Amino acid sequence: MNDERPRRLVILVASPRRNGNSAALADAALRGARAGGIEASLHFADDLMQGFLRDCRQCRDERGRCRIDDGYAEFFFEHFLDADGLALATPVYWYGMSAQAKAFFDRMFCFVARSYPDSQDVRTRMQGKRVALLTASEEMYPTIALSLVNQMQEYARYTHSQFVGTVFGQGDQRGAVAGDPQGALEAAEALGRQFFERPHADYRIDSVR
Ligand SMILES: Cc1cc2nc3c(=O)[nH]c(=O)nc-3n(C[C@H](O)[C@H](O)[C@H](O)COP(=O)(O)O)c2cc1C
Question: Is the pLDDT of residue 19 over 90?
């Protein structure tokens, strides 16, 4: 990370509802981040992606680049890779993340695969970010978003990222997350504000403490 500039946080909303609960959580995180001096931006997955990952062998052009003609590559290179952190805000769909959220991860493959000419540079730039997860769901019990947490943790492990926080918001109708009994919007705002300050301790038995 470059200490000369403010930390950059990318917040990705992976719900088709512009004024839904994931967006409300993301907005709260954005507010908090900006209040904390973080350079934060919010993006909707639906604006970036018009399709799923394809068979790269069929799809790549003669220079090894992805042929899917949408905003993903620009977002990936100009925003995500440049950022120090990612907060993913997704609804819980069928006890997993939304298809948009999953496609965001799947589509990275195109640039990470060796058949992409600059994949080594991409792999280097993907490492060491802070990541966090914000979920919106109708149901609320302690394990409602377990599969999403698990995926995020494995993503973080694989990319040498630090998984620094979760907020599980309860709500079904648009905006209902504002009434979350555990104060999800306040928690999202606090997560945004402290995104790069929150202690992250993931010890191994031989860690020096
Ligand atoms: C396709 C679909 C699947 C859903 N599956 C679940 C589910 O498994 N568990 C749950 O609690 N809510 C489920 N919901 C409800 C949403 O998670 C809930 O309405 C959430 O607040 C939507 O977030 P959004 O406003 O950001 O779109 C589902 C909704 C849809 C449309």
Answer: yes
